[in-house]
Write a structure and sequence with these properties.
By secondary structure, the chain is α+β, with helices and mostly antiparallel strands. It folds into three domains: 59 residues, no CATH class; 125 residues, Pleckstrin-homology domain (PH domain)/Phosphotyrosine-binding domain (PTB) (PH-domain like, Roll); 36 residues, no CATH class. It has six helices and nine strands; from the N terminus they run αααααβββββββββα. Strand 2 and strand 3 form a beta hairpin. Helix 1 runs antiparallel to helix 4 and helix 3 packs across helix 4.
Length: 221
């Protein structure tokens, strides 16, 4: 287990009751809610501990579509040849990386209010209320995330992502940049940015860098 995963577990275990992990993720509204309710009355805190531990265990590659052998090959600095994909590959093209991933859309919603309020509150829809009269309250906002599951691939020629939303298929020369984030990748293709979350993002970057080095060596020869 990496130091980063151990750090994530410790933050949730010792600070989760007060919403520390939510504040660090930028989920200020939920962080305040955890702080005021003792981790949603301990239930939310315990649930988050279970999730972060499960996530850390799964990150060893045992649940990867490439399996432990494929993950270990990449970590050893080699390119695996992954068979049995649904990709339509050319005769001189092979798949070197394949794993589950997801993209997401974030939306900020109002979950409640703090402070005093004099007047009438009318609930219009979920997360939306109309308030009349004087108010000294402040809205508690939460970031609501909708995820779209998919599969991320790297072949010897392309980066491919298949999903319900934001699928793409780009040759290396069309990729502007790739940045590794804490829990995934930020892939820039021209003016379009794709945030792709995957547990094996480090292995993705290793494969991408190996392929770039091979391409560079071929150009020099």
């Amino acid at each position: 287990m990496s130091n980063e995963k151990i750090k994530d577990i410790l933050i949730v275990v010792f600070g989760g009751l007060f919403g520390l992990h939510k504040f660090l993720k930028g989920e200020i509204g939920m962080g305040i809610l955890y702080l005021c309710t003792g981790g949603l009355f301990f239930i939310g805190w315990i649930k988050d501990i279970i999730e972060v531990v499960k996530s850390s265990i799964h990150s060893n590659g045992s649940h990867s579509l490439m399996g432990k052998a494929g993950i270990q090959t990449i970590r050893d600095g080699k390119l695996p040849n992954i068979q049995g994909t649904n990709l339509n590959l050319s005769s001189d093209e092979s798949c070197c990386y394949m794993d589950r991933a997801y993209t997401f859309k974030d939306k900020t919603i109002t979950t409640g209010y703090t402070g005093k309020h004099n007047g009438v509150s009318i609930r219009i829809a979920k997360g939306l209320s109309y308030h009349t009269g004087a108010s000294g309250s402040q809205a508690i906002r939460q970031t609501q995330r909708t995820t779209y599951d998919g599969v991320l691939y790297i072949t010897t020629k392309r980066i491919i992502y298949t999903s319900q939303k934001e699928s793409f298929d780009k040759t290396f020369d069309k990729i502007t940049s790739i940045q590794e984030a804490k829990d995934g990748l930020i892939i820039q293709v021209g003016s379009n940015t794709y945030s792709v979350v995957t547990e094996t993002h480090s292995e993705f970057m290793k494969v991408f860098n190996l392929l770039k080095q091979i391409e560079l060596n071929n150009e020099e020869e």
